[in-house]
Amino acid sequence: MVRFLLARPIAVTMVFVALMVFSLIAFTKLPVSLLPPIDVPQIVVKANYPNASPEAIEQNVLRPVRESLITLNGLEDMQSKAGSETGTVRLQFAYGTSMELAYIEVNEKIDRLTNSLPEELSRPQVIRINTNDIPMVRIQVVPKEGTDYAEVTKLAENVLKKRIEQLEGISLVDINGKQERVITVRPDKAVLAGLGMAEQDVINAITSGNRELPGISVKDGQYRYFLRLATRVDTPGDIENLPVSGPEGRAVPLGKVAEVQYRMEETMGYHLYGQRQGLVITVHKQAAAKMNELMEKVGESVGHFRQDYPQVDFAMTQDQSTLLNAGISNLQTSLLFGGLFAFGVLFIFMGNYRMPVIIGLSLPTSLVISFLVFQAAGISINVISLSGLALGLGMLIDNAIIVLDNITRKRQEGLPLFEACVQGVNEVMSALISSVLTTLAVFVPLVFLSGISGALFLDQAVSVAAILFVSLLVAFVLLPLLYRVFFSHKTWESNREDSRFFKAIVAWYKKGYQRVMANRKLSLALLLMLIPVFLLIGMALPTEGLPPIAKKDAVLEVDWNEPIGVAQNRDRIKEVMASLQGEFEHAEADVGVRQFLLFDGENSVQQATVYMDFKDQQSKERQTVQLEKMLGNTFPQATVEITDAPNAFDQLFASDIPYYEMRWKELESKRPVPAAEMGPWLEELPVTNWKKGPGLQEESAVLFRVDLEKLALYGIDIGALTGEIERLFGRYTIDEIRRFSEVTPIRLEGNKSDFMAILRSNHLEGKEDQRYALANFINVSYEDHYKYVTADKTGIYQSVSLTGAHPEEREGDLKEWGRGKNFSVSFAGQYFKDRENIRQLMGILGVAVLLLYFILAAQFESFVQPLIVIFTLPLGIGGALLMLWLTGTSLNVMSAIGLVVMLGIMVNDAILKIDTVNRLRERYALEHTGETSREILDRALFRAGEIRLKPILMTSITTILALLPVVFSAGLGADLQRPLVFSVIGGLTIGTMTALYFVPLAYWAVSSDKIRVKSQE
């Protein structure tokens, strides 16, 4: 095949040119995003129930929702959490479930359930979680001094939102911090009482005066007209002119008995930019959109907003494309330095400038053609797929060096140029194919990891497979073609084959080889003893998800754990920002309840999230310590957590699941155990390191207990009492003014004094029209109650998180504790998920090793020789772990990827060396018929070491040198890549020595022909 293709250089060139053209077209159409569009198998159902307690939300809303959704296909777990005024049900599905169908099914079940839910409850919101739900940027919209906030809210809702949504590639624009104008009606109760009127008369006047006929038409001769009443109100002035009728038929204008005016609606949440109140617009992209291009369009739109609306300040924050740009920058750096160092190393080793030029042409060619595979496989350009390309580039250089070196060696043996190209490729073809397959055998099975990790590895596996197979195509066809073109008019000069530098290395290698093989048993034993030592080092390494990234931004999460209002919450956050003034470049805060459509976290007026972007990392570390200390001293009841600002990876993998949680259910009442009873029982827990779960956290509340006997005695209906309480303490909407898409509520406003004064100053009519104060029928008390009610598929539970080491060892004691109190005890948490992931990973790695063995057994036609390659892997891994330990680096996702890269290169070297030994033994058996099999084996091992010395050293050195700049770089991209670099450098340093000395030792050990070492000159 190679001979056939090389004999037709013009046709092959045209094919590659065509592939390049189509690949460039495909590249322009590939979506560019931060992460692959992964369907996270979760759906969240949110319910907002104003003025409802956690118990009421659990009983009236969440329990029916859970019972309705428990039969969903693929449902693995269900957790619900009811808080004050809000409740959520989180559904976890088996990975692989069609989330489109699951989303439709959940909505259908919610629609069927709507009629059985409380009337005042709006339809529960169903949120489907996707990686595209992570906003790519946040736009701050802050009104300037004197600007009407309600008008800015309308601007954001009706203009800015729609203008951004019109950009091609935008999927959703979400807004928080909205405040709308309402019309408030505040009756003057003294005047009403003097006129013998009541609040209900004012309410009746407004509802009567705001009627509109529903689509009645009248005929006038041959014409037909729509009929409308001219009694609809539009402004507070219209409402003030409405007549209010008293009991004797006397009517007065409503403005005489009530104050009517525009006001800002009471909100449950605020957004702050610095210390200024404003709105925030989060922008989400479509899966197929290109993030970089889209960010430019969004930036241009914000620039136009600044010109068109000078009364508003705009700013763009938390740009998530930074991580993508870091990935692209790393790929560009790898290409640049890979090419430069490959040129330098080849020139030093061979003294020939043509070889680096050939590799310089093959690298971008392989990369561009890989994008055609991306288009066919439906893979986007994202951080994950780019990291896969970066992994493949190192192995691509490896293949190119091996092929070129083999062709050069064939020319040195005296073959003509054409034959040297053909035989040079054919000789290493099967070994290179095996090396690619073994690399994929190690990497591809990771795709079968469950959850998001497996989905992320899919993009990486496809990108690695794409560039590796394309690199084989380039190495087998394009490289020999380029070699033939570059060397067609040049006679071979044997003295230019190797540089003096490389000849010195060869001499050094020969001496080392003779010493190692002279003490082969001892040398092999020492190398094998290193494996457990390296593994012990690996066990001492700390483990984490992503490597620590030097960030200058942080997030403050605070829960005041006090019954404060959202305005007080806002004022406290402003004080926090004021204390840090001048230390940060910008800060923003979401205070209280979030209005985002896609927000699936807890919503409480007592909570706040503050994002702070400091001037530098040192300033961040200094200020966050002081801030945590200040808040702890000033607000001892508050729960304060300060962490690094999460990037998209953190948000994707973030989990609020406790590490190890003990749950119990009360078997008789199936309700939460009262706090007074639960307190002494918790003191009897057989563990000391534990923390209360959400279902045990308490907060203060005011309880109104109605005296039913007095109500009956004075002839007052309970419905009248509850209706009056709702009007006084709730948000009572009288009616709405509708103008096209704009809706303005008309609200009844009560007294702003404390609730006891309100109860004393408001009355109900009883027998014989006698008026009685509400305080006569209501007993007020303060009481602590549970802040949340938690439940799963089987009902309500309470829990504690165990924080000590090895909590699983106390399961028996904890079950015994629950058994004595009639509790059903179970255990859950991240611990069990991690254990399942480790079990899966071990199984997958076992499959990978088996695949590796099968491929190598087929390549070598031997059941024993593949073991040589497999035993090189622990030594390479050990070198990587040693480097991580020496540099103080943890074992994380990036260092694990580095291990895979390093193993791919190591396996490549070992396979080629064993393949060379096998071929040389066959050839020497024919050429040296007078020698024994032991002497032939000796000769083959030594000569194979010489032949493979150059490509082994060149591939290792070029890879290490290409990665070294990352070690000395700074920034997000360098911080992410540094653990990968340390893994590769450490592994290849040990791995090079392994390929040079361990492989011949192991080959000797497993060979049936034991060799005798003799000097080979």
TrEMBL record:
What are the transmembrane regions?
7-27, 331-350, 357-377, 383-404, 436-458, 464-486, 522-541, 841-860, 867-887, 893-912, 952-974, 980-1006
Q: What are the GO MF terms of this UniProt record?
A: xenobiotic transmembrane transporter activity
The residue stretches assigned to a coiled coil in this entry are none
Q: Which Pfam families match?
A: ACR_tran (PF00873)
Entry GO terms, CC: plasma membrane
Assigned keywords, A-Z = Membrane, Transmembrane, Transmembrane helix
Classification from the root reads: Bacteria, Pseudomonadati, Bacteroidota, Cytophagia, Cytophagales
Q: What is this protein called?
A: AcrB/AcrD/AcrF family protein
